[in-house]
Amino acid sequence: MSLKMLFNLNTSLYIRMQNILSSRYFSSKADKDIIVGSEKSIYETAEETPVYDTYQEIENIELEKKRNKSRLNKEHRNILFGQRPYEEAQEWYHNTIKYKKRLLGRYGMKAVEEPAGFVWPTPEEVNDMKEYERVAYPYSIQEEWARIEEKNRTNAEAIKAREAEVSQKMAKLDKWINDLNTRIAKKEADLLEAKKRKDRLIQEVRLELGSHVSIHDEKFKAVMAEKEKLEKKKLKEAKKKVKEEKKLARLAKLSQTDGDTTTASSSNEQIK
Q1: Which Gene3D superfamilies match (predicted)?
Q2: Which residues contact 79 (CB under 8 A, 6 or more apart)?
Q3: Which of 153, 217, 246, 264 is most buried, judged by most C-beta within 10 A?
């Protein structure tokens, strides 16, 4: 494009701009009145609610949907913002007094469509509560306090008795430990004695049969069983003998005690 053509284009644009400005700002008063009158007649014939208001409401609803990034249901979102979940009853229990009381307690009076007096119990409910209290709490306040004090006193006595029992047992703890250690030592000694006795019997059998005979040999087992039988018999006789000696000693002690008692009684008679 040549320089001349650019100059002509620029000039034509400038002239057009001047014409527009002059027609808007330098027009006559009559022309302005005509324009204003025509605009007024247009607005007077238009509806009171322009169409773009409806479009704006729809756009606002869509905008709110887009703003909700939580993907929660409407009911859950209402709960999140501390509002009533449902605008209308969805289930039968939504119309019950119990559910409405819950709504009142959580979301306030704005969440229920009832007067505040609906939460007060009916006369039948009051009578039921009185009957329940009469059965569940039959005692007066003074009687209940007396029962509580008696219960506390009984518990304190039981605790005191338990502590005394524990103290007594703790005092005997050393004796019990010594007795246990004695029984353990006796058991270990008996086991050691049994092992020595068995080793002695094995040596005796080997002396009789020869050291080349295995302990798993049937002949060795038979001789060993016979030896053990004789050993048990000897032990039984020894225990019986010890038992008889203890019995005789106990009888001798009792006879001595009876003799001392008889002597003392005869001495008392002589004194009298």
Answers
A1: Growth arrest and DNA-damage-inducible proteins-interacting protein 1
A2: 85
A3: 217
* Rounded CA separation 114/123 (Å): 19
Gap between the Cα atoms of 102 and 216, Å rounded: 88
Torsion 137-138-142-144 (CA) sign: negative
- Residues 97 and 64: their CA atoms lie apart, in Å, by 34
Of 225, 199, 220, 198, nearest in space to 209 by CA: 220
- pTM to 2 decimal places: 0.35
More confident residue, 257 or 194: 194
For residue 188, CA distances in Å to 153, 174, 178, 191 come to: 50, 21, 15, 5
Residue 259 pLDDT? 64
Structure tokens at 64: 């709110």
Q: Is the pLDDT of residue 151 over 90?
A: yes
**CA 183, CA 80: separation in Å to the nearest integer?**
73
- Give Cα 11 to chain centroid, integer Å: 90
Answer whether 75's CB lies under 8 Å from 86's CB: yes
